[in-house]
Structure formats: structure tokens, C-alpha cells
Amino acid sequence: MAMTMTGEVQLAAPRQAVWDKLNDPEVLKACIPGCEELERTDDQGFRATAKMKVGPVSARFKGKVTLSDLDPPNGYRISGEGEGGVAGFAKGGATVALADKDGGTLLSYNVEAQIGGKLAQLGQRLINGAAKKLADEFFANFAKAVQG
After folding, report:
1. 15-29, pLDDT tens digit by residue?
2. Which of 2, 28, 117, 147 is the most exposed place for a label (fewest CB within 10 A)?
3. Cβ(105)–Cβ(98) below 8 Å
4. Interstrand relation of 104-116 and 2-11 (parallel, antiparallel or unpaired)
5. Longest CA–CA separation in the chain, Å
6. What is the pLDDT of residues 61-104, one digit of tens each?
7. At a CB cut-off of 8 Å and minimum separation 6, what does 31 contact?
8. Comparing C-alpha atoms, which of 118, 147, 145 is closest to residue 35?
């Protein structure tokens, strides 16, 4: 099952500060819902563990995340894949762009993901709703982190 999602968030912080936080594993770990572990593996990657619940399916996903197309402080591409045992798998990526706007920074994102296994059997509406909720939660947490 494939899905896409786009959105933007206005942040009351300069672009360089937003960029720095987007590249800080401690900040990301604190902002990602259910994230239990996020550690740098090399210059452009992280190893992650996150616990997620989507409808009746609960799973601990272990996976890796890679940053590419780095264009400081304008944006990057983040991609990852995770394995959740019998719950299934998730893989995908997002393009993140930063632009100066209204004395702060406008963060735009474009996500595409694929899921399989038990998760994919839950239905598109439930999955899309859960993905939107996770994205909203992440960006609410990230906005707090960026604005101190």
C-alpha cells in the first residue's frame, strides 16, 4: 500500500536554527512520536527504534534512516525503512524544504511511503489518518523544540 502526504509549518525561528535542529539526533528523537532510540551511524545516517500503534496493530519498528541531497540550510531528503515483525514493514522518504517567511522559516514537506504486512490490511483511511496524526505530532513537537 502506498501513500503520500504534503504539508507546511511556519516556525518562529531563523532558517539556520531550524536546519541545525533538523540535523540533531537528540532533537529528532524527542520529536518523533514513539521514538525509543535514534543514533548516528555515519555522516548521513541514523539507526532508529520506534514503537507505534495504528488501530489494533501495535509494533516496535527497527530501521535505518538516511539523509541525502543535503543543501544546507535549504533542505534535504530523508529516507528510511523499518521492520515491525508480524505487523509488517514501512519504507519511504520525505523531501524537506526551508524558506524564509514572515521573519521566521516555512518548512515544507512532501512524504511518500509504502507499507506492507498486517498494517497494510488495516485500510487506506485508517493508515492515512494515523500518518497525518504522527506528522502533526512530530511538527508540533519540533516547533516547540525550535522555538525553545
Report:
1. 999 999 999 999 999
2. 2
3. yes
4. antiparallel
5. 47
6. 999 999 999 999 999 999 999 999 999 999 999 999 999 999 99
7. 138, 141, 142, 145
8. 145
Query: Cell 524544504 identifies what position?
Result: 97
- pLDDT averaged over every residue in the chain: 93
Which SS3 state, helix, strand or coil, does residue 21 take? helix
Provide the β-strand partners of residue 47. Answer: 39, 64
**Between residues 36 and 54, the one the model is more confident about:** 36
Residue type, 35: C
Distances (CA, A) of 56 to 17, 31, 119, 121: 38, 23, 9, 11
Closest to 31 measured CA to CA, from 20, 18, 22, 42: 22
Q: 15, exposed or middle or buried, with CB in 10 Å at 0-12, 13-18, 19+?
A: buried
Phi first, then psi: what are they for 142, rounded to 5°? -65, -40
Q: How far apart are the first and last CA of the chain?
A: 37
Backbone torsions φ then ψ of 59, nearest 5 degrees? -155, 155
